[in-house]
Amino acid sequence: MQKIQNSRIYFIGIHVLLLILLFTSLYAYSPWIRIKVKEIIMPADKVYTIAHRGASGYAPENTIPAFELAIDMKTDYIELDIQLTKDHVPVVIHDGTVNRTTNAKGYVKDFTLEQISKFDAGSWFNEQYPMFARDKYVDLRIPTLKEVFERFGKEVDYMIEIKDPTSNSNIEALLNEEILNYDLSAHVAIHSFSEASLRRFHSINPAVPLYQIVWYDFPVYKISESYVNRLKTYAVGISPNFQKINAAYVAQAKNSGLKVFPYTVNYQVNMDKAVIWGVDGVHTNFPDRFNEVIKNNKK
User: Where in this chain does the record put each GP-PDE domain (predicted)?
Assistant: First the structure.
């Protein structure tokens, strides 16, 4: 009987040892496991919801109603894009032209504020997305940055993208002027594809956090040490296209001291992945969906 009991203890001990070895191997080679263990031992920081061009899945992008809806959905940030008009006024529009999101045609930089403020920036949405169409979206106007700041103030934080700085001369100084006018330095973050533009803004107002937007054509598993070091001279984080990154990329970026805010994450399966990977937040057209995912992952 003693012999059988000893054999049983030996059998259990071997399997416990094998399980420990298996978990150790998984921890060593799986970023996902490392992230989850870290979350259990040391809870992750807040995961931020960034409403991409407002709640643009439900309302015309970069308009006051899209921002209002995002705030109603408890977003942390409203993300918006700025370009300069011909008379150097920052207006909120994504494309370099007004063709896609208004009833007019031409480059933003070729219109004065008076001209651009007459365009219908909402009807296109009703035509393209009839399931979310609303009468109030007809004849919406392209807002100025000043109008957005006046309307929402410190009610929400802002993630502002500087678009095409080569065509928008002095845009960084004009943006900073508006931020200071409304005392919003503590409520604004800025991102851009242009490293030069972010560096210019950093030299003007180093108190505002900056994020480098990047686009990858192929799957990426890590960021080079040299690029990380370069980024950290002006930015606090990186915003990659979600479809080309993975858990290893997120783990390496965060371990290097960078925040990670991928874009644009609209499907629940990808939202779940992003939270599991340990991102600091995501850009999404559907802030209500992502808030629900964050809530469910806390259970």
Answer: 47-294
